């Protein structure tokens, strides 16, 4: 059995710059139209909250179910650029479809497409990045990816607000479709020869004339380190997902006139903080190791949850929300890198990345449901303290049970006759 991860070669500058542009333009495409759909359906078509809630949840469910299969698909497909082009174009078409056929079933169908397509973007970008730069430079490069991603989020949010105000709500959907088209063109500027297929899937246990031999899914998910990391991710997002919505409800309850302005300030402020944090996370994670930097992100979350209970002043809440930029900025970079570390040599990098995204989605979904009931029964302070407690548990799990993964390639496989292998 041999470990073959592909030889490292210097990527072309064109490919690296195209990857920058791809992350910038893809920033708001990968999530679909998101919250803009809520305002569009309410303001333009006067849907009731129940109908809006249903079509919004459809995308989340589709995304949750598609995350892991899409990761496996990205592993198996050699022409990852074309996969990205197809995904971007599908997203653009479905967003336009929403404005042309604004019925419940048509929009639900479009949301299903958006959910499945959005599940492809994260593993595909990570795979292309790993295939171009290799394992050693992945942390720094993912940090750079996230810098352009957050910058794109800020730019698109501001542009969408202007377009919606000046041209009408439906033009936001056309804007997303146009940006999706630009993303599809941008990915073609990444040179196909610069993407090492083996590296992009985390290497391989063995290369045969018939193809790549990868670790079986059963053996992969029996690895304790991957399972514990998935638990830490689930707890982190269980604690994190509901904090901003609860803060938004608090702002709306006490300062209704400026609620939308305050909410926008919370979102933009956090995104601006994420830009330098993402850049530094990649550099520091590569220099000092993943675990000490990642623990900062885990530690910030319980502090943020506790601080929310001290005041409901809008300026204070926006300042507390800046901490989200630190926690989420670190998580966005190092979660991708840690998965690459843990799966190096298995040939299943993107499958595990998809499975971790599923854990993320499960945690986030449960967060909003459970915290909503707690706030309804015992108030906002109890809700924030509950989320802070879950965040503290996530910190403890990561600190005690997830090892340092920098330079980590010690998958303890049994002897050859006992190893479960699959061609993929």
List the SSEs and their pairings.
Blueprint: H1 13-26, H2 35-43, H3 49-76, H4 80-100, H5 104-133, H6 138-167, H7 170-187, H8 197-200, E1 206-208, E2 211-215, H9 217-220, H10 224-241, H11 243-254, H12 259-288, H13 290-307, H14 314-343, H15 349-378, H16 380-401, E3 421-423
Antiparallel strand pairs: 1-2, 2-3
Commentary on this structure:
This protein is an all-alpha fold. The chain has two domains: 1-200, MFS general substrate transporter like domains (Growth Hormone, Chain: A), CATH 1.20.1250.20; 215-424, Growth Hormone, Chain: A. It is 75% helix and 3% strand. The protein has 16 helices and three strands. It has a three-stranded antiparallel beta sheet with strand order 1-2-3. A hairpin with a 2-residue loop joins β1 and β2. α1 (13-26) runs antiparallel to α7 (170-187), α3 packs parallel to α5 and α3 packs antiparallel against α15. The chain starts with 12 loop residues before the first helix and ends with a strand. The relative contact order is 0.15. Mean pLDDT is 85; it is low at 1-7 and 410-421.
What's the end-to-end separation, in Å? 16 Å
The H-level CATH homologous superfamily of the largest domain, spelled out, is MFS general substrate transporter like domains
The level 1 CATH classification of the largest domain is Mainly Alpha
Output the helix-strand order. Answer: HHHHHHHHEEHHHHHHHHE
Helix content: over 70%
Shape label: globular
Per DSSP E runs of 2 or more residues, the count of β-strands stands at 3
The CATH topology of the largest domain, please?
Answer: Growth Hormone, Chain: A
Largest β-sheet summary: 3 strands, antiparallel
From the alpha-carbon coordinates, what is the Rg to the nearest angstrom? 21 Å
Report the portion of residues in β strands. Answer: under 5%
């Amino acid at each position: 059995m041999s470990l073959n991860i592909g030889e490292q070669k210097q990527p072309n500058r064109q490919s690296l710059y195209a990857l920058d542009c791809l992350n910038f333009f893809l920033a708001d495409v990968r999530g679909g139209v998101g919250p803009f759909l809520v305002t569009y359906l309410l303001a333009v078509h006067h849907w009731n909250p129940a109908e809006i809630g249903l079509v919004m949840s459809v995308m989340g469910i589709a995304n949750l179910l598609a995350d892991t299969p899409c990761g496996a698909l990205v592993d198996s497909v050699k022409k990852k650029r074309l996969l990205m082009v197809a995904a971007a174009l599908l997203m653009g078409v479905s967003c336009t479809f929403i404005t042309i056929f604004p019925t419940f079933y048509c929009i639900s169908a479009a949301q299903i497409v958006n959910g499945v397509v959005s599940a492809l973007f994260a593993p595909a970008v990570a795979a292309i990045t790993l295939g171009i730069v290799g394992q050693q430079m992945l942390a720094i490069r993912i940090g750079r990816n996230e810098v352009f991603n957050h910058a794109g989020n800020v730019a698109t949010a501001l542009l969408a607000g202007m377009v919606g105000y000046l041209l009408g709500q439906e033009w936001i959907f056309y804007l997303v479709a146009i940006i999706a088209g630009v993303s599809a063109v941008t990915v073609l500027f990444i040179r196909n020869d610069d993407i090492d297929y083996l590296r992009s899937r985390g290497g391989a246990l063995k290369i045969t004339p018939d193809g790549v031999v990868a670790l079986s899914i059963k053996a992969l998910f029996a690895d304790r380190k991957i399972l514990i990391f998935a638990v830490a991710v689930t707890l982190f997002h269980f604690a994190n997902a509901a904090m901003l919505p609860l803060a938004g409800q608090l702002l709306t309850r006490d300062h209704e006139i400026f609620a939308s302005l305050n909410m926008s300030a919370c979102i933009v402020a956090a995104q601006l903080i994420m830009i330098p944090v993402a850049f530094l996370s990649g550099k520091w994670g590569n220099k000092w190791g993943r675990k000490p930097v990642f623990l900062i992100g885990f530690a910030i979350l319980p502090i943020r949850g506790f601080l929310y209970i001290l005041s409901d002043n809008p300026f204070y809440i926006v300042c507390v929300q800046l901490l989200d930029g630190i926690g989420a900025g670190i998580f966005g970079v190092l979660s991708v890198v840690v998965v690459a570390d843990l799966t190096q040599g298995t040939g299943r990098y993107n499958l595990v990345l998809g499975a971790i995204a599923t854990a993320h989605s499960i945690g986030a979904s449960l967060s909003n449901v459970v915290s909503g009931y707690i706030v309804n029964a015992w108030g906002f302070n109890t809700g924030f303290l509950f989320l802070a407690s879950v965040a503290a548990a996530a910190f403890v799990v990561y600190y005690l049970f997830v090892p340092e993964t920098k330079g980590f390639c010690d998958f303890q496989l049994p002897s050859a006759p006992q190893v479960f292998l699959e061609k993929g």
